[in-house]
Amino acid sequence: MNPAQDLPLKEAKGTRAPLPPGPKGHPILGVMREFNRDSLSFIMRCREYGDVVRARFLYVPAYFIYHPADIEEILSTNARNFRKSMSLRSNFFQRLVGNGLVTSEGDFWRRQRRLAQPAFHRQRISSYGEVMVDYATRTINKWRPGETRDIHPDMLRLTLEIVVKTLFDADVSGDADKVGQILSELVKPFASQATLKWILDNRLPTPAHRRFHRAVGEIDKVIYRIIAERRNSGYDQGDLLSMLLQAHDDDGSQMTDSQLRDEVMTLFLAGHETTALALSWGWYLLASHPEVEKKFHAELDEVLTGRLPEVSDLPRLRYTEMIAKETLRLYPPAYAVGREAIAECEIGGYRVRRNTQIFAFQWATHRDPRYFENPESFDPDRWTAEFNEKLPKYAYFPFGGGPRQCIGNYFAMMELILLLATIGRTFRLPLADNRSVEIFPAMSLRPRSAIRVTVENRQS
Ligand code: HEM
Predict the structure, then answer these.
(1) Is the N or the C terminus of the chain less surrounded, counting Cβ atoms within 10 Å?
(2) pLDDT per residue over 309-347, tens digit each?
(3) Computed over its alpha carbons, how large is the radius of gyration of the chain?
(4) Does 399 contact ligand 1 (Cβ within 6 A)?
(5) SS3 of 65, please?
(6) Do residues 131 and 310 touch, judged by C-beta distance below 8 A?
């Protein structure tokens, strides 16, 4: 970055607050090319301008914010002045998740969140612990010691099975398989979503787009049929779908089929890839840090004494929880959150014009040496109670924060700990080769290549 080309600190019209500094970029493209070339490095380099940085993607003004207080401002304190960023309003997202919890806004979102919330209460979520351990056990029963596996597809399948099972229950396992297959096809186009496509609403009827629309149509049919069956049976199967079906608003109204469809699709998508990524990166980090792995195994042996983990073990699986937290710090599956300013305001002493896209990056703030000593090192031991206490609230925000905080955060943390414990109790997963795995920052923080591990029986 060449400071000589930087945007000057401008005095904005009508207010004393200046606009923040930032890279000038290309006259037409703005910073698009640099961002697309290597977005994570670009985000880190931009930090040199300060805690609030101005950039432009084509015609779209954007701010990058790095300071926990400013992040708190947009996600929590002044959340009402912001809506989700424009990338979430693309045709692609609308067709996929419609007006589900991740994308909806205003009173509609508030009502949906209120309706869905009971399904995510800690107590309710605890009842899914057994499903999680059971499915993890089934998965590893198919593994053979000595074989080499790519761990990420395994984790994707497992977390998808868990979400499908907790939402649709076992009696519809035929459909669950179909849903799983289509969903894994559906998330593929996300991998090729470059920034340009996020910003420009891509409406061209390319073969990939036609395939995408057909796949969404197929999954729609399955979801609508399951909803109809469940409505007719009126039977509470104890899963999330039952909870959503039973939810009443204050005026007694319930969710319509199309709202339910959007929420179910949203929960499928939001709830499985993120958790799978955290697990895959967790195994990768454990394999590259034998001293951490040793402590992890010692805790599992002491707490579980050879049996399978249960929800009641969670308070004692402290080190496993620290591993999960540290993994989410270094490899946050959602590595950015975006908002759009509804009205002009100020952030960190800088003027924010209406419609500015504002991005906070877990990737950057989680690696900020002001809050994390040796920020690049994988050190689960840093997560002591005192450290948690002292850490500024939004220096660590893998699940976002404020009113739009991840509704599945307890679900995800419980799943991470139980799956790490169930698998780690039986197997070690050392890397099959010494190559480090590159990160591919698509919609989420994915591995660019396979994470190849060798399945090793711990007992032997
Ligand atoms: C490690 C796993 C996960 C991570 C890192 C994660 C991360 C996030 C983040 C950062 C947000 C906030 C986005 C924003 O403010 O713009 C979010 C929202 C959301 N997440 Fe998660 N998530 C995870 C797991 C889950 C699970 C398991 C579920 C459901 C089963 C879920 C469902 C949702 C939903 C519905 C929202 C939207 C909430 C709203 O706006 O009201 N997530 N997630």
Answers:
(1) C
(2) 999 999 999 999 999 999 999 999 999 999 999 999 999
(3) 23
(4) yes
(5) strand
(6) no
* pLDDT tens per residue, range 154-187: 998 888 888 878 776 643 345 555 666 676 666 6
Cα separation, 90 vs 435, whole angstroms: 37
Ligand 1 geometric centre to CA of 288 (Å):
28
Other CB atoms within 10 Å distance of the CB of residue 236: 12
Find out whether the beta carbon of 30 lies less than 6 Å from any atom of ligand 1.
no
Q: Which amino acid is at 60?
A: V
Name residue, tokens 């099975």: 161
**How far is ligand 1, taken at its centre, from the CA of residue 405, in Å?**
7
Closest C-alpha to ligand 1, atom 11: 406
Can you tell me which atom of ligand 1 is nearest the CA of 84? 16
Which residue lies with its CA nearest to atom 2 of ligand 1? 275
Given the CA of residue 412, which atom of ligand 1 is nearest to it?
27
**334 Cβ inside 6 Å of ligand 1:** yes
Q: How far, in Å, CA of 40 to CA of 143, rounded?
A: 35
DSSP labels, 417-440: HHHHHHHHHHEE--BSSSPPPPEE
Q: Which two three-digit tokens encode residue 118? A: 């009971």
CA-to-CA separations, 106 to 102, 111, 352, 427, in angstroms, rounded:
12, 9, 21, 47
276, 156 contact by CB (below 8 A): yes
Kindly give the number of the ligand 1 atom that is closest to the alpha carbon of 278: 1
What pLDDT digit, counting tens, does each position of 26-43 carry?
A: 999 999 889 988 999 999
Cα 144 to middle of ligand 1, angstroms: 34
Rounded distance between C-alpha atoms, residue 54 and residue 196, angstroms: 18
